Amino acid sequence: MSVLGVSVSIRSIGTTLVIVVAMGLLQALFVGTKLGLALRAVAINPQSAAFSGLPVERLLMVGWGLAAVLGAVAGALVAPQLTLTPGMLDNALVYALAAVILGGLTSPIGVVVAAWLIGVLENLAAVYVGFIGFDLKVAVPFILIFVVLIVRPQGLFGRKTVVRV
């Protein structure tokens, strides 16, 4: 499919739509429901959540089940683009780590924006920066991680937590 002179595959459009829908559903779950509030409470402080009467073990099972479902969806989206081997997601883990660090651990939307930014900057660097090329473009996320950790350790969209003693 060609849009404004740019070729985009139908699979890429479908993958993007699935990611946007999953992101919206997760945001709605964690911000707008009692289950999401309980899951966040258990993640932040399980002991306090247990004292509040929340079933911590069940909520942890729900959290792990949700992680498994999201992992399965991610694997199904990535598998057609990669060769099916035991280490097929090793390269994807580098980009996932970079996106989480750049976007901020407290901002799911920031992680998605950071992942998009990494993809764009990596490909622009591969084409326009002569010494990087396509062989060293995997170094771009590491350079971005280094710069962001020096300038803004909580990530581009993360919140700075202040702990008062």
Automatic annotation (TrEMBL):
The keyword Transport applies. Keywords: Amino-acid transport, Cell membrane, Membrane, Transmembrane, Transmembrane helix, Transport. InterPro entries: ABC_transp_permease, BCAA_transport_permease. The chain crosses the membrane at residues 12-39, 59-80, 92-119, 125-151. It is found in: Cell membrane. Pfam families: BPD_transp_2. It comes from the Bacteria. Belongs to the binding-protein-dependent transport system permease family. LivHM subfamily. This is Branched-chain amino acid ABC transporter permease. It comes from Blastococcus brunescens.
